[in-house]
Specification:
The structure is a single chain. The relative contact order is 0.08. The protein is about 45% helix and about 10% strand. The chain has about 160 residues and is mainly α.
């Protein structure tokens, strides 16, 4: 019935599930000794030579067969009591989901824009520092200190 075999366990739960699945079969609901087969959908094999409705299995180890000897109405009645039917507004759910997706996309876009603005600001600062690195080198004060014309006579003593 399209369920994964991991959800079907041994014991009472497997009997309940197989009885429930049997309940929804057209022919199986009326007959006794019905075998219900569980397998993952990826294990189904279908090729063009098979008849309509006929399927095969790729790996027989993944197939689980449960024999339901007779119909047990108390199990079906107990399961029907816990049954919950929902009639969701699919259009509203889709719109909500799309709004959430758009909100996340907008948040990531805004985050990316902030990051790009920050990196652009850093590049601009580095470019300004590179362009103005030697601005204080040629000030009047620095030129006066390095002027050889106005040195004192004992400047050579600094080197000895």
């Amino acid at each position: 019935m399209g369920r994964d075999t991991a959800t079907t366990t041994s014991g009472l739960r497997a009997v309940d599930e197989s009885e429930f699945d049997r309940r929804w079969m057209v022919i199986g609901n009326k007959k006794d000794n019905v075998t219900i087969i569980y397998t993952p959908w990826s294990n189904l094999k279908k090729d063009g030579s098979m008849a309509v409705g006929q399927v095969g299995f790729k790996d027989s180890k993944k197939v689980k067969k449960i024999l339901v000897p007779q119909r047990e109405n108390p199990i079906v009645n107990r399961l029907n009591k816990t049954r919950v039917e929902r009639f969701p507004d699919l259009r509203l759910e889709k719109e909500d989901r799309l709004k959430e997706v758009r909100r996340k996309e907008q948040a990531t876009l805004q985050e990316r824009r902030k990051e790009e603005a920050r990196t652009a600001k850093e590049r601009k600062e580095k470019a300004w520092q590179r362009d103005h690195a030697y601005d204080d080198l040629f000030t009047e004060e620095a030129l006066a200190q390095s002027n050889n014309q106005e040195r004192t006579e004992d400047f050579l003593e600094d080197f000895m």
